[in-house]
Amino acid sequence: MPPRAPAAAPGEPVQFRRIVCPVDFSESSLDALTYAIMLAEEADARLTLLHVVEMPRALTEEPMLLARDVARIRETEAAEARRRLHALVPEQARTYCTVETAVVEGRAHDEIIRQATEGHADLIVMGVHGRGVVDRLLFGSTAHHVIRAAACPVLVVRSA
C-alpha cells in the first residue's frame, strides 16, 4: 500500500472499479496483465492498458532521422503499441469488463501516476523486472517510483 493511498474501511469489501495496468510488453508486464484482466472481469471494472513510450526506439537506433521524421516515427510507434495492446486482450474479457488502451510519451512512472490519478484508478497492477542492485541504486525502478507516489493500491506481479 502506497503511503498516499486511503485506508480501506474495516469490514468493508474492497471494490476495484477502475484499474490501470502499464504494459511494456515484457514477460512481467504480460503476467501482470493476466491478473489485471481477472480482477477487472470479476468486478466488471474499467481496465486501462497503458503503454508509455519514453523515447521511440527508431530515434535511438537512427539518430540521424531525428531532424527529418520525428513526428512520423512517434506516430508509427504509438500506432504499433496500440495494435499490440488491443491484441493482448481476449475478446471474452471485453464481455465482462470495459477495456481501454492508452499510449503516451514521457517518463514511465510519471505517466502511470498521471493516468491513474486522472482516471481515478482504484488499483494499479504492474509487473516488475529482475534488475541488478547497481542498476536499481543508480536509476531506481519504475515500480518503486509508482509505489511511492500512487494515491491508490499497487499490485506488483513478479514473473516466475
Describe the structure.
47% of the residues lie in helices and 20% in strands. Strands 3-2-1-4-5 form a 5-stranded parallel beta sheet, sandwiched between helices. It is globular and about 60 Å long.
Strand order of the largest sheet: 3-2-1-4-5
CATH homologous superfamily heading = HUPs
Mean pLDDT score, rounded? 84
Distance between the termini: 22 Å
Proportion in helices: 40-55%
CATH topology type: Rossmann fold
Give the amount of beta strand, in percent: 15-25%
Q: What form results from the Cα inertia axes?
A: globular
- Helical element count? 7
Number of domains: 1
Per CATH, the class reads: Alpha Beta
Q: C-alpha Rg, in Å? A: 17 Å
Q: Which structural class should the secondary elements be placed in?
A: alpha/beta
CATH architecture: 3-Layer(aba) Sandwich
**Main sheet makeup:** 5 strands, parallel
Order of helices and strands: EHEHHHEHEHHE
> What are the segments in which pLDDT stays under 50 over at least 5 consecutive residues?
134-139
State the main characteristics.
160 residues; alpha/beta; Rossmann fold; 7 helices; globular
List the helices and strands and how they pair.
Layout: E1 18-22, H1 27-43, E2 46-53, H2 57-61, H3 66-88, H4 93-96, E3 98-105, H5 108-118, E4 123-128, H6 133-139, H7 142-149, E5 154-158
Parallel strand pairs: 1-2, 1-4, 2-3, 4-5
Summary of the model, kept short:
The protein has 160 residues and is of the alpha/beta class. It has 7 helices and 5 strands, in the order E-H-E-H-H-H-E-H-E-H-H-E. It has a single domain, classed as Rossmann fold (3-Layer(aba) Sandwich), CATH 3.40.50.
